[in-house]
Design brief:
With 98 residues, this protein is mainly beta. The chain has one helix and five strands. A hairpin with a 2-residue loop joins strand 1 and strand 2.
Length: 98
């Protein structure tokens, strides 16, 4: 499916993972985090099959957890700056840990 991300055509893939079918430590972690419910990932790749966007959503302790990551300018090196400490929270503060 072609969609537009960053003003360029992409191919969109959707993957659904059933945590009960994943073995080993990763499976145990997924089962714990998702309360055993499916996790859906959406990927958008550019014409060179490089990822441009990833989205996921799943339920954690009765609340929806979602994230979107966008990637671009493959091969370009940029400095990273950590956010100020007052902008960070722990999983426990977000109500997701412990």
């Amino acid at each position: 499916m072609a969609e537009d991300v960053f003003g360029m055509p992409t191919t969109h893939y959707q993957v659904t993972i059933d945590p009960s079918k994943v073995n080993g430590p990763t499976g145990d972690e997924l089962k714990s985090l998702s309360s055993g419910k499916d996790i859906t990932y959406d990927y958008w790749l550019d014409a060179k099959n490089l990822p441009l966007q990833l989205k996921y959503a799943f339920e954690v302790q009765g609340r929806m957890a979602t994230a979107t990551a966008q990637m671009r300018d493959w091969g370009v090196v940029r400095p990273l700056t950590a956010p100020p400490a007052d902008q960070l929270i722990t999983l426990e503060q977000a109500g997701l840990g412990g």
